[in-house]
Amino acid sequence: MPEKVGVGIIGCGGMGRHHARNLANIPEVGVRAYADIRLEAAEAIKSEFGGDFCTAEAHELLADDRIDVALICTHHHLHKLYAVEAAQAGKHIFVEKPLALTIEECQEIERAVEAADVKLMVGFQARFSPFINKLKEVIPHPLVTFGQLVDPKWGDQSWANDPIEGGGNVLSQGCHLFDMMYWFNESEPVTIHAEGGNFTHPNIPEITDSVVATIQYANGAVGSVVVGDFGAPALTGKSFYELFGGDKTGTLYGYYSEPAIKFWGADIEEFTMTDLPEAERNSSAAHGYVGEMRALIDWVAEDIDPVMAAKAKDGTRATMLGVKAIESIKTGAPQRIS
Ligand SMILES: NC(=O)c1ccc[n+]([C@@H]2O[C@H](COP(=O)([O-])OP(=O)(O)OC[C@H]3O[C@@H](n4cnc5c(N)ncnc54)[C@H](O)[C@@H]3O)[C@@H](O)[C@H]2O)c1
After folding, report:
1. Residue 125 and residue 292 in contact, taking contact as beta carbons nearer than 8 Å
2. Relative to the CA of 281, which of 74, 202, 261, 272 has its CA 20 to 30 Å away?
3. 20 lines ligand 1 (CB under 6 A)
4. CA-to-CA distance for 10 and 34, rounded, in angstroms?
5. What is the pLDDT, as a whole number, of residue 2?
6. Range of the domain at 228
């Protein structure tokens, strides 16, 4: 491995830029190349954070020997294409969530990564959030977990609502929630039983925008989830978790505005931004994006296993839960997760 970890970013929109900014603060990283079909978007990031070249052709970036790890930050329909191509080119991979929109595509990525013996991390950055991990630390074995991720209606024209490019709120964003529910329980989901459907986007009948579901885990614990773009929970904030451990409860609210946890029955009563080290009192660190990039680089450079990170099988599980929730709504029957 050369002195610096060579990084290439494919997709230079919002998340490509966010990761470039955090990588710029890691001295062992050299971002070499940026790929975007809008070359001007690639050039704008390069002029801000430095690098060797920009291209409109992602495969040019993937063919470059100076690149050790490719960050795939495109819309969802391209994740499988570039992840498989990156694996075949021998690159390690970071792919934004969801890993892909179908179970089959996720499994194809898993096979490509295994065959090429490369590392792959999925962008479930909340696993690195100090708030999420404080909740996990105080209540390591929840009996019942409640999770909510609810947005005001996303625009019909948003790419994330395109059935092919984005998949709609439940697949596009719900994957974060499904992964978090696993992360809290650390037990495989066995079944999911969902109700819901298309409540807010009648003009896009292919997508599912509203899910209320129950998940049964192998260890006997249960989870209850509410996800979609059908409103704004003014009191709790969009992302809200409640872990019931029998003798202890932890409630995380205001995650995207002023994150805070209140505990009941635990040695600690409250956990807020002021409990974080000063350097972590910013949104990117509090939500896990900073820790995620640090762990990725340590994995690639030093082979330090990022125990908190979502790997390929975690990405597949999260997509599977969304897909099976939709199947459950359509069939009216609980679905097995396997
Ligand atoms: N983890 C999170 O919190 C989080 C938040 C927002 C978005 N995301 C994810 O990040 C990914 C990107 O979302 P975004 O909001 O940055 O989207 P975006 O629209 O801002 O950026 C996507 C970029 O990809 C480029 N692109 C399109 N086709 C391409 C191709 N063939 N090759 C190279 N580039 C191409 C577009 O021109 C655009 O610049 C998605 O997977 C999304 O779900 C994650």
Report:
1. yes
2. 74
3. no
4. 6
5. 56
6. 128-282+317-336
